[in-house]
Amino acid sequence: MACHMGDGPDSGYSQCVLKPKTTEEVSKILKFCNYNHLAVCPQGGNTGLVGGSVPVFDEVVLSTALMNNIIDIDDASGVLVCQAGCVLEVLDQEVGKQGLMMPLDLGAKGSCHIGGNVSTNAGGLRLVRYGNLQGSVLGLEVVRKHIQGQSKWRGFRFIEHP
């Protein structure tokens, strides 16, 4: 559990680290935490330097480490669909097998998660050529409090599904 208590120079404490594998599991965890008034600290690869993923007040740590599946790589369109816990370097290697590359390259690529990259709108070493990551994201699957199922977010629309 110690590896989940620090991010750069900051460290914190939590008694509980949960590692869901699916969006549905994330939804159930968040529903439980909301019902029981438990704070949640989402956590990716812990490569940030500002303590954003450090549990400060004994929050429930929700790690995306096991949400690391590549769902699809469409080489015709260049579109990658993956879970938030995928490591950037692994993604770059996998799309590279199809003659593609990730538009993002960071020093922490061997341990940073794509979910953290998207949440911080990472730029990295290819920023000047390809821009911030937000310009490459076509959609997100998100969990929202007031929706029973899950939602897929594309642009500024929500597309509901059971």
TrEMBL record:
SUPFAM superfamilies on file: FAD-binding/transporter-associated domain-like (SSF56176)
Main localisation: other
Keyword terms, alphabetized: Oxidoreductase, Peroxisome
Cofactor or coenzyme needed: FAD
Signal sequence interval, chain numbering: none
PANTHER family in the cross-refs: D-2-HYDROXYGLUTARATE DEHYDROGENASE, MITOCHONDRIAL
Protein name from the UniProt record: D-2-hydroxyglutarate dehydrogenase, mitochondrial-like
Record GO terms (molecular function): FAD binding; oxidoreductase activity
Annotated FAD-binding PCMH-type domain residues: 5-162
Coiled-coil ranges from the UniProt annotation: none
Subcellular location: Peroxisome
Gene3D superfamilies in the cross-refs: 3.30.465.10
Gene Ontology cellular component terms for the protein in this record: mitochondrion; peroxisome
Pfam family, one: FAD_binding_4
Annotated source species: Agrilus planipennis (Emerald ash borer)
InterPro entries the UniProt entry points to: FAD-bd_PCMH, FAD-bd_PCMH-like_sf, FAD-bd_PCMH_sub2, FAD-oxidored/transferase_4, Oxid_FAD_bind_N
Subunit comment: Homodimer.
